[in-house]
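Lecture 7 notes. Example A: sequence first, then its structure tokens.
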Amino acid sequence: MKSWIKLTIVVITVLLCACHDDEVRNKVQVVEEPLSDIGCRTAEMNREMAMSIPEGYQGRGSLLTKAYMQTRASSQKYIIPVVFHVYGTSFLGKSVTVELIEDALKRTNEDFQGLNGDWQRITAPFDLIKKELNIEFRLAQKDPEGKSTTGVIFYPKNSGFGGLNKNPEIAACAWDNYSYMNVYVMEDLYGDQVLNNSGVAWYPDEWMSDRNLARVVYNGAYIGKNTTENFRRVLTHEFGHWLGLAHTFEGGCTYPNDEVDDTPPHEKNMLHEYDLNCEGNKTNWQNFMTYTDMYANFTTGQVERMLAMLEHPARFPIWQEENLKKTLYLGDEAVIEVGEGMLFEDKKNDGTFSGRFELNVKFASLKGQVNDELSADTYEVQHLPEGLSVRVVVAGASLLHVFVDGQAVNHSSADNTFFILRFTGDICDKPLHIDDQHLELRFRNPYQIVTTEVSDVVVCAGQQRHLFQLSSVYPSSKYSLVYEGGKLRIDTYSKALATESFSRNVSCLSGGDEIPGTLSWITGSDNFIHDLYTPSYNQWKGKMGYVGLYFPGADQTERLYGWLKLSVSTAGDSVILHSYAFREEPGIALKAGQKEVGQNLIDPEIYADKTVVNAGEQVRFGFSAWSNSGINTYRWSFPGGTPAASSEKNPEVSYEQSGIYDVSLEVTDRSGESWVLSKSRWIQVKEGGTSEKPEITSLIVLTGNGDKFFRIENPERYADSELTIWDPRRKEILKRQNYRNDFEMKGLAAGTYYYRFTWKAAGQKEEVTGFVELVR
């Protein structure tokens, strides 16, 4: 019997709910299985591999023999070159970058080395047998051909590498399994449209490594900072499988379980701190190889097994010095890496470049002095566009600046290219690893407004996030529509949107509103994203309108202005993305809905012959035209009016009930351009006038910070009103129709002022007179 007990880890899931159940279920499988079925399926997939290829695959069977336990290596440091193959750009709405993977791998190394934040919180008695492994998983720096690499390779979206049906594809893109650990990142691990499986891995096996099938397959949504601190440790869990560890709940309470003596057996695959196992003993509930809400440790026995598996023929060659020299830079040669590897044509759009590339020298120092220009015989340039030349200048002990001079003969986006810079001369104090530097030049087309029509993407409770990018040329042009806790939001990834003053409430712009104009701009952040609809902000409710935006262009100093066309449901529970556009010329305004440079946009406006009316009174509506092509259709909407909708150019509408009403108009011109104009709380309908006498200010103190306006309570209740005010000498100083509390008296002398206020009620003229005292 084992002396300890076993544990389990919480696999956090992202369950997809349906906005329209049938529609969503046709696209994405909604997982309804128990929690254990959507976590790590390593044991299941290793068994399937063993059954499908019995003649070669050993998998778990090779562990039972403990054949390598006696030959395990010493406590030396192990370095494992790793390559990540990333398939797709969106993983449950999250992106995966080289920087994200670098950070995730750093944290995984800390887990193995006993350096994570929970290492000192291991509960007794397992604090006495916790054990670190002196291992470092390091992104490959040389590819199989010896060329420099980031160790992260990006591919178009794919799926199913966690199953057994894609072996030819896996082998085709794999890097030699005896030289690199291969990790495949995708969203749909098993090709079954279930998108929230976390990861799967295979135990050491020569049959798999011989065929380049050894691997870890992992969901990009759960890498590093894409998820919580605890759940990102599931990657550590999968790396433990790759090193030969089974789940601690493997086999339940039937021995030999996971074949590690100091991990207590247990049947539950999800444990918490005070759970006991089937033998009544404590569990190592913080073990990396179970499911838990605090992954924190390996045991001494698990580390011994991993050391043994590092001696396995399928793992032994990877950490040998000869292989490390082929896959990593170990400091015995100078290496040049690209820091800034892309230049945009200048804003002048004339084929010139004023920026520079940055190249970093690693493991060595440059021989030249700062500002020295390297001689042309120390480097070669290939595929440089006609009209351009290159200068390379020493910018520091380990930094080179590459300048592109001249003027390209051809400079549209079709001429975008990479040119090759290869250093051949003696420029460092160590031998230089000869490698081609691929430097990208991007040209601008004649400036246009780039417009994208969308097939009405809906975001709601069932589809809670939609990530989109206005242009693949500009990585910072990504946005997400988000449904979150009954709110409709826009994640700008810390960029600004046009908002209501001093808030992150997104302004609902009408077609033709100028961007940026005089709009208020507020940036977002990781913790504070912008709101389209909340219980306290409903300007978008039941409307179609435009969002004003800008994002960085070729550099952070350039602002490219644009818009999104959205509509929000009347219930405020869904938002539809219809289209979006941006202007390529930096810093130049455009109008909401504008799709072409030079489009004849006279500021569009809807108007009414009156905006304050009595119940039953008619209002005549119209608009200012702006299109060269002429208007083809009109779609007016008059909530609460009669008629409630109209296709006439100048409709007449009456309102039978008192209240304040919205009006909107969508027009389409003969070229197919469509525009939406709207005014909120625009038409005020009164109850035919009131005969009740108003309450009017009687005293105004001219000193201090108090209100200095002549005030009538609710002046809008009084139809066809007129206010007249006289000074103490009976000189008339104000006569105003339909007064709205906008006459400030602070500039007047102290004294008694007289007024007369008249209005109509039920066809009769009503009047009230009085005086107001101004004192200091």
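Example B, a different protein, same format:
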Amino acid sequence: MAGTVPASAAPEDVSEGLGQFLGGDAAGLNLDAIVELQGAYAENPSGTNPVSANPLSAELLNSVGVDLGGSLQLLGPNGILQLGTVNQFGEATDEGDARAAAGAVSDQGAISVGGSGGFPANADLNLTPLLTGTEAESILSALSLNLGAVSSSAEQIDGGAATTDYDVAGATLNFSSPLVGAIYGDLQTTVEELQTDVAGLSESISGGLASVELGGVATLDSEVTVVPPDLSEVLPAEVIGTSSGVTVDLTSGAVTVDLAALLAANPELPDLNNLGPNSPLLSAGVTAAIADGITQAVTDAVSPVVANLENAIQAASVDVDVTIDALLIGEIAVTLDATVQELLAGEATAVFADDQEGLVEELVSALGLGSPDDLLNSIVNAVTGSLGSAVDGVIDAEDTLDEITGSLAAEVVGPVLTLVNELVAVTVNVQPATGDLGGASTTVRALQIGVLPAAPLATVNLASSTVRGTDVPAIGPSIGVQPSEVEQGSSTTVTGEGFAPEESVTVSIPGVDGGDPVAVETTTNAEGEFEVDLPVPGDYPTGDVQVTAEGAQSQTPATAGLVVLAPGEDGDDDDDDADEAEVDPSLGVEPDSAAPGDEVTIEGDDFVPGSTVDIVITDEDGDVIGTIEDVQVDEDGEFSQDWTVPEGTDPGDLTIIAEDDEGNSAEAILVIVDGTGPDGDDGPDGDNGADGDNGAGGDDDGALDPGVSIDPDAAEPSETVTIEGDDFTPGGTVIIEIVDEGGNTVGTIDDVQVGDDGSFVVDWTLPADLSPGQLVVTATDDAGNAGSGILDVLDRDGAGGVRDGDGDATPAGAGDGSDRSGGLAATGATVATFGVIALVLTLLGAGLYMVSRHRRLAEGE
């Protein structure tokens, strides 16, 4: 069913698609307004949608009367334009997408390339009636344009730029010209003239022989027989030439130009279906190509005719019998038998009759010639000379061809094509600045034909497709009412979201006893939201009622429940509110610090029972480093989810946020430490630590077992201690690093020399600002072997570590039953704890040493 094209779209329309095969104007008549020619128009939501299709039969198209004046019709029996059956398609969707097509297209708007049986969509334009009885007939006697399947399509999706396409299955320009036909007349005249010249060759040769000089001692008589060809048989009844899509019939003067083939054969011209917007079909480049094609076709047609004429003349036989009557000598006979070609090529010879040698010698002597051949050559030369003067111009094919085709471009092709362009102008891939559906629309036409374009008699649009699309957000309307229980005579506030932006919305409750609904009108904002008060009449029945909101554009109703109460009646809102469990979610992570590669457990509490949560983990810069979706919350509002810290995560705080389906959220902090912590790969308990598989106490012990001691093993800030080491790589150096209980480096000593026995000694002064506690002193040699020792930092009054129950200072980590003597902690947790710390710092020291060493090497130290 076809939609009617309005002057302008309805304001609420989000999409329009119009496929119209025939339009334009003719003799002042607007073809677009003819009802029988209406296209397929879809408009959403105000008209036919989402799809409109309107095929037009050939009978219908060609029955529409459009008078062009002077008994001419545009269409119909006496029309200059004949059309085949076509299809028209328009689509306009709720989402704002628009599509259109016209011509040889399917019911889904797809172009059938090359046409289809059901919709050939061809067009034949016959302009010969415009030539009849005019002076132009001396140049053009007939003119027509045959078009194969003509189609176009356009679409605009998701509010993006419109895309267009067109297809013309073929275009053939046909014309007949007396100027072209005159070329055949020129050929006939040439043949007749040649026939006369050939018929007179015998007389010409005889005359030439009479001029042979015999010195008065002899006379010459000749009998010449030339058998002339019938040159009329050489000229065919039809002379047709072809070149690059151009066919020329010189017999009738008819010229056929297959424009698709012509364009395809010319690499400098685009193909018929690859022309740019608003391209003239008969552009200057195309016209020049047609002119070249016609000239070449005529040349190709005439060339073999001229060549055949030349061959026929050259094949003619020339028989010459000469009698020389020599005074006092006697008669001498000479014969010459050859073709015209042999004579002109110098290949002919004359001979004396047999048994005349004596007579010939006497004659040659009497004539004063050197030999008998001189006499024979004079006879041959006389024949050839007279023959050449008669046929030289005839047998020169190139000169003959030039006479026929030399003025072809200027005197024939030029005037013909100039007149064609004055009669018809064809534009391909027409894309007007303003679409047929207004400024926001896009139109493409496969073809536009202008008849007498200088003062248009008709401008005919073929296969026009127009679209106007928009980007319509996905419609998912919902509403809420607050309060959900109201007394008769009061009102409730209805809020809505997910509607189309700025659309009119009707909010209503059913009418009483089948009467009109109780309704209010409102308009959504740019986000598709609204808020409106809905009154409940005082006599409205109590009980449950459904509130409905429907947008004029989205046309998708949304509903919500409402309870109407009698005045003073208690509702269930309070109980409902009490029944609704409030949630106060919280989130934790165990452990709350971890290294890359470690696994932690994220636990949530007091989220919405039975919902799912999405977990997002971000670093200190706000970059997301991990997400976990759809974690199930149990009936108690709790969940537990394991997560592994990605390798390469930088130390620092990670923020973990969990949010349930209703938007309730909580967050927790996970501290990321590097891999040198107690449990890291490089820590004391890791694979590379002192107690790990690769450490000093592991399965892969090395040959060396370095050790470090400090004397004294307890000192106050600013005091100096002696650091001693043994069993390091002999002759090498060590780097010493001193680290406090927080892992902070408080001192380093570079390039301490190791003796040949693997030992070293170095003094170190404690920084003045050190706090009481314990330090781990780690030495690492060139080979990465490391050892550690413990140094207690005391208060200025000699106390360090923690206070015991009496307020006396004891080394950190020492408690009841522990003692300190010599240089090392004796027993208990302190030894274990700082053994671990020592191993950690031993490995740290080894790493720092290697880094320092590499840096020095890189700097050239």
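Note on Example B: Residues 573-580, 687-702, 799-861 have pLDDT under 50 and may be disordered. The longest helix spans residues 284-314.
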